[in-house]
Write a structure and sequence with these properties.
Number of strands: 5
Number of domains: 1
Structural class: mainly alpha
Largest sheet: 3 strands, mixed
Strand order of the largest sheet: 1-4-5
Shape: globular
Radius of gyration: 19 Å
């Protein structure tokens, strides 16, 4: 049995300013996106992207992630609470971001970017799909450092006690998601996108891969105490992942049939 290290959520103090690990993980995610994007530009000049476009794309993506992630958490998970406490909507330092909301926010941001640049929407999403998973993995490391989103009770040898919760050994589900949604999904998408693929195929694989990995990981993750398990014993994260998988399968068939 392991014990969670109980990291200090604040990485360092700069006078009155406290820099939190979770914020640093967001910065790491954006830096990984930019670095991988520039490498991809050099490796695949046939894609027809310029460095300035990548920088603009990151700006749009940051807005989509932050605004969509926050609004998604409010609408999907705690609409009643924030309706009663509207000012807390802006208290992002207290946590509360939804991947699925951030994903929808990024889709809208990419649509706006595609209109500005004249690129097709799917060409944009195909380009960014392999750049995203390592950033998602960084976010899960942030969850682990904060000791949040812990797993369900277990008796596996690597079960971990989160003292801020109880003295029960639990799955370190944040690390499972780091391995699946971060490392494994990145490897699949990076290798798949090294060769030219039909329009929409890379985006489709992202939808299928993330939705499937998140669905599986949720079986080891403790459901939110204010929601619990929903219909059929599935969590909110699993119900939100099912449409992603279905849309990905449909898009993949469309991409190859259209070709």
């Amino acid at each position: 049995m392991l014990i969670h290290p109980q990291f200090d959520p604040i990485a360092l103090h700069l006078g009155p300013l406290a820099i939190r690990w979770y914020g640093l993980m967001y910065l790491t995610a954006f830096a990984l996106f930019l670095g991988l994007g520039r490498y991809r530009l050099n490796a695949r000049p046939d894609l027809g992207w310029r460095k300035q476009e990548l920088d603009d794309l990151l700006f749009y993506g940051v807005l989509g992630v932050v605004l969509g992630g926050r609004l998604g958490y409010i609408l999907f998970y705690k609409p009643g609470y924030y309706l009663q406490h509207p000012l807390e909507i802006f208290a992002v330092w207290q946590g509360g971001m939804s991947f699925h909301g951030g994903f929808l926010g990024v889709l809208v941001a990419m649509w706006l970017f595609s209109r500005k640049t004249g690129k097709t929407w799917l060409a944009v999403t195909d380009f960014i799909a392999p750049l995203v998973p390592l950033g998602l993995g960084a976010g899960r490391i942030g969850n682990f450092i904060n000791g949040e989103l812990w797993g369900r009770p277990t008796d596996v040898p690597w079960g971990m006690v989160f003292p801020q919760v109880d003295l029960v050994a639990r799955h370190p589900s944040q690390l499972y998601e780091f391995a699946l949604e971060g490392l494994t999904l990145f490897t699949l998408l990076w290798l798949f996108s090294r060769r030219p693929r039909p329009l929409g195929a890379v985006s489709a694989l992202f939808l299928i891969g993330y939705g499937s990995f998140r669905f599986l990981a949720e079986f080891s993750r403790e459901p939110d105490d204010f929601l619990g398990l929903l219909t059929l014993g599935l969590s909110m994260g699993q119900w939100l992942s099912l449409p992603m998988i279905a849309a990905g399968v449909a898009m993949l068939r469309w991409a190859y049939n259209r070709r």
